[in-house]
Amino acid sequence: MASMFDTAAFIQAENEPVVVNGTTGDDTLNTGTNRTTLNGLVGNDTLTTGLLGRGYTGELYAIQNGGTGNDTMSVLINAFTNYAYTQLDGGTGADRLSVNSTLTNEDADATVLIENYLTGGTGDDVIDVDATLSSVSGGNINNEVYAGTGNDTVTMTARVLEGTDVELAYNYADGGTGDDTIFATAFGDGDDYLINEVSGGIGNDIIIARTEGGYGESYIAGGSGADVLQVIGGFYNELYGQGGNDTLFGGTGIDIMSGGTEADRFFIGLNNGADVITDFQVGSDTLVLTDGQTIDSLAISNGSTFVTFADGGSVLLQGVTIADEALLFG
């Protein structure tokens, strides 16, 4: 009969695939082995993978499956190589999943790729994924999170260090079912292409997407429920409230916003840029001006209303004509 608490440690620097299975108890599985799969199976398990230092070369793989129970799962990669792949699945229970991947490559002829795939499964999960790329040649970051069922908290970061030539730093999250809170951030500079793509799914979700440096875009959709959507930074963003009474915050770039059905609120602050609201409904939707923002003028053209603000920003209300600015505020 298995003990109720088992500890196993596997430390080597080989590239042969290894599979380590827990028991029906509360297991602690630690590995420093490349190409290792840790399976917690049943119980409240702790799974840890660490691939650190110059000794890890070639392609790196880390896979963890929590199984049934409230599991704590973590992967830490910090290596001088060109490829790292992680895959974590929490399974059933309130799980904590964490991945921190950093790759450094000094070969001018090599392209670097970080791929992280995390699935929360069933339960109120906490999911954190952080990817950092430092390469003299170029590369890509791909973070994907599927939160699953439950009230989940997701934090995603794709970070490109200064001077790195990156084609794409990408965050994707699907909140699934439940009241989720999702933060997605992409950092870069120069010509780095930064994208956040987040869907809240079913439930009352909070989604904040941020890009800083480089060429940033965020695409966020609330799904059904009363959602709060916010973009920070970015040259171009799209926000879709969809079902429910939603609250949308535009950023400083070009924001395309759609509240969807029911009564939605659109917050406009200073330096909002040039925004478009595609489905403003007089009598149910409202503009909310913040940070001292004020309206300078209204103009009607081609069946739409163009609102200019005192700081030079604007919002185009497509397909609706409004001559009285009081109607903008409900």
Automatic annotation (TrEMBL):
Q: Molecular function (GO) terms listed?
A: calcium ion binding
Q: Which domain of life is it from?
A: Bacteria
Entries under SUPFAM superfamilies matching the protein: beta-Roll
Q: What is this protein called?
A: Calcium-binding protein
Q: Which organism is it from?
A: Croceibacterium mercuriale
